[in-house]
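Re: beginner question about structure tokens

> Can someone show what the tokenized structure looks like for a real chain? I only ever see the sequence side.

Sure, here's an example I had lying around. Input first:
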Amino acid sequence: MSNKQSSNLGSSKWSVIRVKYRTELAMGIIMVAFFIMMCFLTENFRTAQNLSNVASQVAIIAILSIGQTFVMLTGGIDLSVGGTLGISSMSMAITMVATQSMAAGIMVGIGVGLLVGCINGFLVSYMRIPAFITTLGMSMITRGADYLISNGRSVSKLVDGFDMIAKAEIVPYVRVYYVAIVVLFIVMAWCLNNTKLGRYIYAIGSNSNAARLAGVNVKSFRMYPYIISGLMAAVGAILMSSRLMGVDSTYGANYEMDTLAAVVIGGVAMTGGKGTLIGTAIGVVFMGLVKNGLDLLGVSPYWQTVTVGIIIIAALLIESISSMVREKKKATVA
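And the corresponding structure tokens:
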């Protein structure tokens, strides 16, 4: 192969990547630009300790956002991820204290998360109740159940050794669970890109009627993402409880909004069928850097909330304008 042919092939591959991942590339560039800007504005921002703090702050949202991504790719939404995390962590803590068994507590926590996910998926997929209503109702149910089983009290004195899940380090400032979350993202991204589950999720999100006519069992494959979301909430519950070695009834409050923000900023379409876990990862990290940077600059928490809201709307606006431009170009060509 000649140098010219190699150059053309490389250029062609880059063009495909640029078109396929244009949103992810744009958000990645913005994130890097923000990081560089903050390094000049405050020296503490780029320290290993601060970056480790950012990783700790976004870890739970990152795990929950994986499940939210799967759900939103089908055109759905899960507003119960925070409540599911809360009830999973409380069930796990109560079981752990009662049995003095870490394994029993973790199994109960995962079981509760999966149960909530199954119920959500069944109601949305088989009973055809809108995802917004189903998961909003489930959020209220799980939050109320959390208070009921705990009588509104915190649970502490979890079993010895449970805290090592969150404390174990590979090297200073790099905890084991940081790497575990990265691996989890890679595995789940591979599933989306290389398995029948992933292909069918994208197909359902793009056009569920066409997917059904193509032989896809739409009901089953629309249900699976909610189960995955419930499982991710349970995994998040394990990590959060291990970090704090205690559980409170308020755990998970407003986490659904943070996951939605991260997923939308990362380029996942609210209507489904478009987006990647790479984009979600960028959205999670970008949000963490923004919040941390504003904290270091002494910006009021209220203004931080306003800033995140502006970023979300801006991301949606940019995507909407891009879609209109692409549709206009297609119409012109046709």
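Each token stands for a local structural state, so reading them left to right follows the chain. Residues 27-328 form a domain with the ABC transporter involved in vitamin B12 uptake, BtuC fold (CATH 1.10.3470).
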